[in-house]
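lol ok so funny story. i was supposed to be doing the assay writeup but got distracted and ended up predicting the structure for this chain instead. priorities right. anyway since i did it might as well share w the group, maybe its usefull for someone
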Amino acid sequence: MPDDTSDLIQQKKAELGESDARIQLEKRCTELGIENEWVWSDPDLRFRVAFPNGRNKRWRLVGERTAAEFLSIDFPPVTYLGDFDAVYFKNSGTIEAYVLTNSPTRRIQNIPGARRIGHPQLEIPDLDEDPEIEQRQSGERIGINDAWILEFSPTADRPDLRVEIGSASREFSIFSERNRMRGSARIRDREPLPFGLGRFTSLRISGINPTRHDEMLEILNRVAGAASFELDLQYGTALTIAPSEAADRARFRIRVAQARAQEPPRNPQNQYPEKPLSLYWYGRRSSGIPLLEYLAYYQVLEYFFPSFSHRDTLTRLRNELLDPRFRPDDDSNLVRIINLTSGKGKGFGSERDQLRSTIGGCVTESHIREFITDSETLSEHFSGKQKIKDVTILNIKDSQNDFLKSVADRVYDIRCRIVHAKEDGGRTSVDLLLPFSKEAEALGPDIDLVKFLAQKVLIASASRLRL
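and the output, tada:
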């Protein structure tokens, strides 16, 4: 760090004064051996703390209010888990994770066994500290500002395991990365709400004794996955663990920002085939669900397989018949003709061949190279280290290879990894590309590529607008 920046930081710290909670938190972190630092981000001085996160660190920017909250709970030792907004509290042996639901929280609160804690107008104690939890009366509804809890019944094989869903504990409401986003009133008025009011929903797992980060992460994945699936089976309510802020940002950072035209729009001159256009809009509306979005754009290409594969086959057949060496009385010549015209289904050739014909019929190699090289994001993705395994590599700088064939093979390879999975481990088996995996998070540039190809095939199949 340059001396002038260091001097500026020291000057700004002195202006804060000893009463600033961040100054007190810095001292507390130093006492506990927790890495921390001040960062100058013009025009603000910011304080951040590094928490363990497996082999990595998770840095948290800490404002004055959050610093005061950290100090109020005596800063217990924690470990963040994977790419989730989830924490392991070492003192209590508890994993707690922010969860998102596929339905309003009120629906989860109506699951049998859910009960209210405290009163919405009063300071709400921590969930573990209230010995007399107010039982939910018959017909009583849990209010939107009520703290609540839903405890899962223990099983005979693991009586020590405790699983709960409900209002986040006081500690986790502070350590969660969603802390500063809780309640617009807090941000607007700068006045903290009592703990419990405006709490988000979390999953808590206790009665476990993990010693390593990866073990904690595995427990979280297994328990959360099983609990969510069974809640969906029994009550139609599913939960997913919220990603960390960094993981959430990464999903959108690796997508290409579409350039906007500078001219006013004009009346449309073309009309596009209705069915594949519907598939295209399905892909557009599936943003944030990478596997579904990818398959929707692939289906746009797939819709045109018959027309483009027929076109390609007719060209090959015509060339074969025009060859002066062709002899209709030669069986081997006729076998070549049969092979050219013996396709399966509505198109000719394998699905991979039909995809090659479709891509080759709607876009040129220079179009794709320009699309990729015009974007730093795409260039880095396709030229850098392979982030998605078992797919064809695109060598953009190599002008000698059949680039269109490589593009088609990569598109098809990813499609197969999404829809095909075999557990026998045979030579033709492929690993399933799983949702929420790092590979799925890295799929953005490939989605942009197949979306570009879907646009091109729609344009190639357009006709003049008829009204």
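The CA atoms of residues 323 and 384 lie 44 Å apart. The first strand starts at residue 36 and ends at 41.
back to the writeup now i swear
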